[in-house]
Amino acid sequence: MSPKKSAQSGNKNKKSVSPKAPKRPSGENAPNCPVVAVGASSGGLNPLMDILASLPQDTGMAYVLIQHLDPAHESRLAEILSAKSKMPVSEIQDHTPVQPDRVYVIPPDKDLYFEKSRLILKPRDRQDAARKPIDIFFKSLAENNENLSIGVILSGVGTDGTEGLKAIKEKNGFSFAQDEASAKFSGMPHSAIAENCVDFVLSPQEIARELVRISRDSHNLQEFLDEQTLKEPDNMNIQKRILYRIYKTTGVDFNNYKSSMISRRFRRRMILNKVSALDEYEKFIAEHPEEVYNLYRDFLIQVTNFFRDPSVFEVLKKEIFPEMVKNKPRGNPIRVWVPGCSTGEEAYSLAIALLEFMEENQKNFPLQIFGTDILEESIEKARSGRFLHSIGEYVSRGRLLRFFQEDKTGYQIKKQVREVCIFARQDLLKRPAGPAQGPPLFQPGPDKLPQCAHLPGHLPAGPGDEAVPLRPESRGLPAAGRLREYQKEF
After folding, report:
1. Which of 50, 68, 111, 349 is catalytic?
2. What are the C-alpha distances in Å from 488 to residues 29, 211, 323?
């Protein structure tokens, strides 16, 4: 999905509405309010001031500013921004309760987290050269405020904020990046845009206008698009027609997906396109065929990282891999299937882990890692084996040096890993993930591992049982425990 280039794009026939947002409860015991997290670094002060100067005092949202600051000096950022803002601006104290229509500024030499509607300060890890304070807060906000999270990346060098925006988008929040024309340093915005995790690419003033609109529209749609309302006959028929249009365009049937996931994605796309009713959204789709694919991609929001769950890789190396090679004839390949592989990080992680295991245990078997995913563009990126510098947050320096080639734009997986990984498109709900339906050459046996434990949680209750053959009593286990159960099933 291409990010919107202008806050004026969208449904041109919509009536103009006053930018005032409805009043929300305030105070310490108020429910979570929408939180706009703004990340900035070099060249970020002026766009911060422009955004605050353009915002009214009553959007109903809270604003948390994460600026890269010199840890050795006191900050006057809150004082400087107060002169531009119509809302109160304050430097954050530990356990500050978040309230709407206020601006909170991170202090120097601290990492910031969002927990139970409070801002939590923790000591900065000075030993961590790759520390990314914007990502730290964005991820914490996404985890705890979910679809009430909005992330904004302004001018700065590097990649801080990209992983955080991915997390916000996964939770149905909204994401912004400053356009390169107005950004003094475009590294941080460009990184996020390149990872396809940005909804809007705008100037600071346009970002402010769009935030006001999103506040208004999201409040109006909050109750309208709940699960109960979508089950009303008229809305059910509209929903089925939209899902059928997606099926005709992409070949993917979402009718059995969880209704809560469907409603959240509809709401997000409607807000993005300035549409306030489901029947209007159906008309919008008919007039803008590209929106079918945009909605399809939103249904398939994929977030993955290298070595995503360290506990799983511990189980693999200590328990699963030894069993796979036990009594295995020399020359027989080890085969691993990673369904729902997204952009390839987990498939490459398994390849690296197996290469390390064989070296450590003086084993030498051919490897075949099969990665499949429903989204063709994800498969294309996986095949390319190219990743941003931000993977250094998840991949150790030793592994980066051994298995990756670094250049100015990021990292390239080396040949020894790329050549054992094969990627292909596959719809698990059409071709379930069982031994007989797996990739070519994948047949059941003790030396074959289906790495299914990370599949998305919105798979439907019916087809999902076919797609992920896991015993019911195992579904509540941690990822490592589920992995053991998958091995038993196959």
Report:
1. 68
2. 48, 50, 11
Cα 69 to Cα 191, 381, 470: the distances in Å are: 20, 34, 48
- The two beta strands, 404-407 and 62-67, are unpaired
Q: Any idea which residue has 């190219």 for tokens?
A: 386
Residue 416's pLDDT band (boundaries 50, 70, 90)?
very high
199 catalytic residue (yes or no): no
> What's the pLDDT band for 487 if we cut at 50, 70, 90?
very low
Q: What mean pLDDT is reported for the chain?
A: 80
CB contact at 8 A, 73 and 44: no
| Helix intervals (H) in 252-343 | 259-272, 278-287, 290-299, 310-315, 321-325
Using DSSP, state whether 120 is helix, strand or coil.
strand
Question: 394: Cβ–Cβ under 8 A, 6 or more apart, which residues?
Answer: 305, 306, 307, 308
Number of H helices, E strands in the chain: 19, 17
Catalytic status, residue 160: yes
pLDDT tens, position by position, 87-105: 999 999 999 999 999 999 9
Q: What does pTM read for this prediction?
A: 0.73
Determine which of 23-27, 47-51, 79-83, 84-88 has the lowest per-residue pLDDT on average: 23-27
Q: Is 452 exposed, middle or buried (0-12, 13-18, 19+ CB in 10 A)?
A: buried
- Please pick, among 111, 135, 160, 179, the residue that the annotation labels catalytic: 160
- What letter would DSSP give residue 442? -
In angstroms, rounded to a whole number, what is the distance separating the alpha carbons of residues 160 and 182? Answer: 19
Provide mean pLDDT across the span 354-364: 92
**Is 389 known to be catalytic?**
no
From the list 41, 149, 186, 191, the catalytic residue is 41
